[in-house]
Amino acid sequence: MIVAQLSDPHVVIPGALLYGRVDTAAFLSRAVAEIARLDPLPDVTVLTGDLVDKGEPVEYDHLRRLLAPLAMPVFVIPGNHDAREPLRAAFGGDGYLPGEGFLQYAIDDYPVRLIALDTLVPGEGGGLLCAERVAWLDHMLGVAPERPTLVIMHHPPFATGIERMDRSGLRGADQFAAVVARHPQIERVLCGHLHRAIDRRFAGTVAGTAPSTAHQIRLNLTPGAPLSLMFEPPGYQLHVWREGGGLVTHTAVIGDWPGPYPLRAATAESRPS
To answer: Of 21, 56, 146, 183, whose CB is crowded by the most CB atoms within 10 A?
Structure first.
C-alpha cells in the first residue's frame, strides 16, 4: 500500500497570492500533477491540514478544483488555518467526515488503517488534543489492535527546535503519547504544520512532518529567531507499506529536474556506430 502525503497548501481565493508573493494554487497544481503521474499510483492521498489560509468557503471550492485530477481517494484533516464547518461542507459529500463535532475519522478499507485526528483550536495557531479526542483515539485503536495503522494529524506532538513554531505546538501531547505507547500497531504519526520534513522517535513509533506543497519555513534553530519563509523546493512524502516489511517513508521534492540518467556510462560495444 502506498500513501501519498501532501501538506500545508494554504490555498487562497482564486487569483490571489499568499503574503502577496506565494502562488499557492500553482504550487498545489504542480504537486497534484506530480502525484498523478507516479507509477505505481498511490492507493490514497492524505492532506495534513492548513488546506486553505482563511477557512473561507470560496477557498475550499478552489481547493476541490485543484485536487480534482487525483484519481485515487483523497482524505483531508484540518489545520490551524482551517475552519471546521466550511471544510465539512466542502468535503462532507465524500462520505468519510462525521456530520458534526470534530473532523476525525477512521478508514478501514485498506491494508493499513488510517486514523485522522482533529487538533484544531479555532482562532489559535497551536493545536490541542483534549481528553475527548484522546479517548476517541484510544477507543479507535483498541478496535483493531492487530492492524497496522497510520495516525494523521496537523500539529506534530514534539518540539522541533524551531522555537517560534514550537510555541504554537500541540497541547495534550503527553496524553497523546501515553495512548500511542499502548498501541504498538501504529506504524507512524503523519503531521504537517512545520513546512519542513522533520522526524523523531516518539512513544514507541516514529512521528514526522511533511514539507509544504508551497513555501517552506526557514530552518533557523537560533532561540528567538523570527519566522520567515523560503522558496526551497516544495515536496511531498510517500509512505510505502509491505506485509512483513513495515512502513518506509520517502520525502521527494517537486520540480522539473534533469534526468534520469543511467548510473553507468555506455560500454563501447553498446554505443551506436
So the answer is: 183
